[in-house]
Amino acid sequence: NAGVTQTPKFQVLKTGQSMTLQCAQDMNHEYMSWYRQDPGMGLRLIHYSVGAGITDQGEVPNGYNVSRSTTEDFPLRLLSAAPSQTSVYFCASSPDRFQPQHFGDGTRLSIL
Amino acid sequence: RKEVEQDPGPFNVPEGATVAFNCTYSNSASQSFFWYRQDCRKEPKLLMSVYSSGNEDGRFTAQLNRASQYISLLIRDSKLSDSATYLCVVNPSSGTYKYIFGTGTRLKVLA
Fold first, then answer.
1. Which of B45, B11, B13, B26 is nearest to B109 (CA)?
2. CB-based burial of residue A56 (10 Å sphere; 0-12 exposed, 13-18 middle, 19+ buried)?
3. What number is the average pLDDT over the span B6-32?
4. From the centroid of its chain, how far is CA B36?
5. How far apart are the C-alpha atoms of A21 and A4, rounded to whole Å?
6. What's the CA gap between B72 and B38, in Å, rounded?
7. Is residue B104 helix, strand or coil?
8. Residue B44: which of A33, A98, A103 has the nearest Cβ?
9. Of B35, B5, B50, B30, residue with least CA distance to B95
């Protein structure tokens, strides 16, 4: 079982560039979310989705966009990369809000 | 007050020791609770869900105290491989869909 798949695993960007972090799950989970984790810090929610076509902001949404056109995919777009967005990004999914989330293995992003 | 609070540690314990972590939560309407472990620079992995009656999985025991609004994790016979950060997670209560993560408790098991 693939579970939650994130691509790429590593990425280096220059300030001002845009890019999309991909997240796909094959478990037919309705709930998906994006977190960032800075060194020595906890997870912070960026955006989440409770189903196809439905997204909402988390606690640190600025500079990021999401869309959910299918149940399987939940891409995260950086509009204009800034050094402050250097972080590890995790995507997670769960069947509903009562079940535990399953995490992808993360994307390590550096903005120069 | 933070929605979910954990002692950051680190807890340094010898191999074979028993260690316990607590996690307090502020929203009394919270309905589901989980413990995850996270190794350095890796993704969080589910350790166990926490049920109202308490539950055990091998050397790990989780308890929920709704009256005092905390959950606990007990690790018996600690192994070197238990060294990690343990995250407490509380599910969103009615009307919101945001899982609330604690910042984690670091455990280091010493040989």
1. B13
2. middle
3. 92
4. 6
5. 13
6. 17
7. coil
8. A103
9. B30
Rounded Cα–Cα distance for residues B68 and A2 (Å): 39
Q: Which residues of A touch B31 (CB under 8 A)?
A: 98
Tell me the mean pLDDT in the region A73-86. 96
CA distance A79 to A18: 5
Q: Which tokens belong to B48?
A: 């166990």
Query: Can you give the pLDDT at residue B93?
Result: 67
DSSP state string for B29-55: T---EEEEEE-TTS--EEEEEE-TT-E
Q: In whole angstroms, what is the distance from residue B38 CA to residue B46 CA?
A: 9
Query: Hunting for tokens 């869909």 — which residue is that?
Result: B97
Q: What is the pLDDT of residue A102?
A: 96
Write out chain B residues lying below 8 Å of A51, CB-based: none
Cβ B21 vs Cβ B105: under 8 Å: yes
| pLDDT per residue as tens digits for the range B25-84 | 998 888 899 999 999 889 999 999 998 888 999 999 999 999 999 999 999 999 999 999
